[in-house]
Amino acid sequence: MRIAVVAKAFDVLGSAKCTRALCIDSLASTSIFFGGWRSGVRSAVFWLGARRAYAPVFAGRLCVTYSRSLCDLGEIGVSGMQKVLMVLAASVFSLVANGAVADFEMCWSNVSTRNYDKAYDYCKEAAEQGNATAQGVLGFFYSSGLGVERDDATAFYWYKLSAEQGNDGAQLALGTMYSSGRGVKQDDSKAFYFYKLSADQGNAYAQLNVGISYAEGSGVLQNYAEARSWFLLSALAGNMHAQFRLGQSYALGEGVEKSNKDAVRWYKRSAKQGDAQSQLNLGVIYASGDGILQNNTVAHMWFNIAAANGDANAIEYRNRISESMTNEQIAEAQSRAQRCMSSNYTDC
User: Domain of life of the organism in this record (predicted)?
Assistant: First the structure.
């Protein structure tokens, strides 16, 4: 399946001394998400936003300058339910080394303009001075081949240094590398360990992966109730894939009392973010009328939308249900599908 990641713009807090800069308290945690390839690396997704501020022990702000908007859009291609989310959530904690901060500012400035060759040089300088953020960025460069030849073993090295400093994004990246065996011997137990470290810091993608690990018994004893709890945490943070898995938990009665009504509630949240699997499952539930009011028109609408979003099975389901519908009902379903998609899922 393909995971679409939409980069969201956060309010930029300026100051008299730092124009066009993101300024945070010296001990604030800042998330930076990278990603992006389809049929080879095409673009990078940048998501920079203040997430969680800790009480500063001294006055001061860290201003990271940038030269363009950071709300680019992109996609991350992934494979199956064992997705490898090549995202980076890096944290800046202090102004300990002025040289490292300056190098990182230049690193980020060049990353934001996609000048990866120059960005690599500055990031490497900052990373070698111990900047956890730069170490994570360097790991991403090596894992994706941006600005440098792809080298999974070297990516693992830099991610590990960053993760050891508490970087939740680097911990997530290490988990995905252990899970897939990229750059390191495949080990589901270690994958779970690093997913859990990241998830405990509130990383929604890691929370999803912890939930999947519990659901599948991968690297940890299978426990549907634990899986459901982690899916819920990630789903409440807006992760559409966790919302899908939570809907699936209710539909199958795994770790929670079976309820198609609750399954529909979570499938809808995911479906309205564009998840084709959730859209297909909504169609199936509405077609069956199991636990909810049966409605062929709504079922056809969701099958049609799922098919438009690339789900091949949805085409068969749509054609099958059409056989029990009138031409007028089909026309209504098609009209509703068009309205739903053209409104970006606000009118479904």
Answer: Bacteria
